[in-house]
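Form P-L/3: holo structure prediction, ligand heme C.
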Amino acid sequence: MKKSLRSRIVPAAVLLLAGSMCFAEDGKAIYSSKCAMCHGPTGTPSATMAKMMGIKPTSDPSMQSLTVAEIASAVKNGKGKMKPVAGLTDPQVQAVAAYFKTLK
Ligand code: HEC
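OUTPUT (holo model):
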């Protein structure tokens, strides 16, 4: 009895741990849940968002020239009309900034 219970709990705990470590670094998943509603799923905002809030697509030279640190700062501190994005840990901010930088 004891043995079979333990053999189920241990793999479950390992899976949970591996899963949460993986999510913390997954800039793409963070982007989808925290940024895509304004910046669009691929970095190009919808025409309405672009017009109403003045969001540039990531293909714009002024977006391309941002460093990962500048992107991370926009996420943490806000920038212009963009409010700071809440609910992200520092490693998550870094991961999503690095991912944002790969969007063209
Ligand atoms: C509620 C809508 C909204 C969300 C959510 C949002 N943004 Fe923005 N973002 C904006 C707007 C609006 C601007 C344009 C700000 C301006 O220039 O006034 C902007 C601008 C930016 C810029 C350009 C900053 C600069 O220096 O010009 C970056 C980089 C950026 N966002 C990254 C992100 C990332 C990464 C996320 C997710 C973690 C995110 N944004 C989430 C609305 C949003």
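COMMENT: The domain at 27-102 is CATH 1.10.760.10 (Cytochrome Bc1 Complex; Chain D, domain 2).
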